[in-house]
Amino acid sequence: MARIIVPTDYSPTAEKAIDQAFLLAQKNNDEVELLHVISIAPSSESPKILDYVMDGKKAEEARLEALGQARIEALKLPASVRWRAKVLYVEHFIDGIVGRFEKVKAKLVVMGTTGASGLANMIFGSNTANLITKAALPVLAIPPSWKPTELTSIEFSLLPEQIEPLKKQVKKWAEWFGAAATVVHFANIATAGMSVESPFPLKTVLTIPEDSLYQDLVEYTNGLKGTALCMFVHERPTVFERIFDKSITGQVAGHIQIPMLALPLKA
């Protein structure tokens, strides 16, 4: 079964997500699934439409196969790397990815982001941001400016009171990535001197009062190399909640320059 799923639309950023997924899979000998999702309306279920769909599916699978092979050769990976191609026709894009993730019992989705541009992205977010906001599965978001490389460290952005209850999660994910774990705590002047206990190396970053937290996170991570930022995310299920109670995680995913690992935090 595929442990890492990479939804792709054949864009340059999606290609970077594929490269990062292949590099990550090499550490644990995991299988990668390249997934191309095509939205199809329920009214498309007539025999003629379905025949057309099935003919097109073969062409898409061949395109995915060629793309995967090209990326393996570009990364100079061994021919033994485990991967496969999958074309999925579903009514809803996000639900299709979640359903596929659950069906194959995957571990992680790796997906490129579009960055923050355009009114539609500002309000509704990219597909990656929407998937993160759904908080149904772990997502590694790859920004457009990222150059795929081995991730040697993960910085977990946590509040002091989250460190103890989430320490097992931190340890598990750091080990799976084969990366060093560090907890980063963002503090203002009033809380900067408070005592914080952590079983992992701890960084305290003094925030700028007039900035929002997502701006502080983005500015802090700009200079990090070979590192991913991890954030735990709650679900915001409705459009109104996404507009008026914006997910900090979704905002960070649209602006950050390094990979961001979004992990569901169940209520």
Number of helices: 9
Count of the separate structural domains:
2
Structural class: alpha/beta
Report the portion of residues in β strands.
15-25%
Distance between the terminal alpha carbons, to the nearest Å? 29 Å
**Which ranges are low-confidence, i.e. pLDDT below 50, for 5 or more consecutive residues?**
116-125, 237-245
**How much helicity do the residues have?**
40-55%
Strand-and-helix sequence, N→C?
EHEHEHEHHEEHEEHEHHE
Describe the oligomeric state of these chains in a short phrase: single chain
Judging from the principal axes of the Cα atoms, what is the shape? globular
What strand order characterises the main sheet? Answer: 3-2-1-4-5-10-9-6-7-8
In total, the number of strands is 10
Specify Rg, calculated over alpha carbons. Answer: 19 Å
Q: From the 3D coordinates, which CATH architecture of the largest domain would you assign?
A: 3-Layer(aba) Sandwich
CATH topology of the largest domain: Rossmann fold
Task: Kindly report the name of the CATH homologous superfamily of the largest domain.
Answer: HUPs
Average pLDDT reading: 81
Q: Give the C-level CATH assignment of the largest domain.
A: Alpha Beta
Largest sheet: 10 strands, mixed
How do the helices and strands line up, and which of them pair or pack?
Blueprint: E1 4-7, H1 12-28, E2 32-39, H2 47-75, E3 83-90, H3 93-103, E4 108-112, H4 119-123, H5 127-134, E5 139-142, E6 153-157, H6 160-177, E7 180-187, E8 202-206, H7 213-221, E9 227-233, H8 239-244, H9 248-255, E10 260-264
Parallel strand pairs: 1-2, 1-4, 2-3, 4-5, 6-7, 6-9, 7-8, 9-10
Antiparallel strand pairs: 5-10
Helix pairs in contact: 1-2, 5-9, 7-9
